[in-house]
Amino acid sequence: MSAPHHALAARRWRIAIALTMAVVVLYFGFILLIAYRKALMGSIVTPGLSVGILFGAAVIVVSWMSTWVYVRWANRSYDPALAALKAEGK
Questions:
Q1: S-S: 5 plus which of 1, 70, 75, 88, CB 3.0-4.6 Å?
Q2: CA distances from 61 to 68, 72, 87 (A)
Q3: Quick check: 90 pLDDT over 90?
């Protein structure tokens, strides 16, 4: 594999790892709140909606958004750069 391929692959991994770590930190933060702040998570925002349910839904939405960010980046940057490298024959 050529140096441009390695550079492109390294960039892809950096972005993937950064987004993954953001979601992991958010998820484990949510779990720690459940474990150590039960009263907060059980607080009612509106009838039928607790802070815990709201935060849980936020974890899911942020996970979807991180996937959307990665796919958008891949479609706009990674895929064209990879196609250009393949066209050059490198």
A1: 1
A2: 10, 16, 37
A3: no
Number of domains in the chain: 1
In tens, the pLDDT along 46-85 reads 999 999 999 999 999 999 999 999 999 999 999 999 999 9
CB-based contact 12:78 (threshold 8 Å):
yes
Tokens of 33: 């709140």
Range of the domain at 84: 3-88
Residue 88, both tokens: 């050059």
pLDDT over threshold 70, residue 36? yes
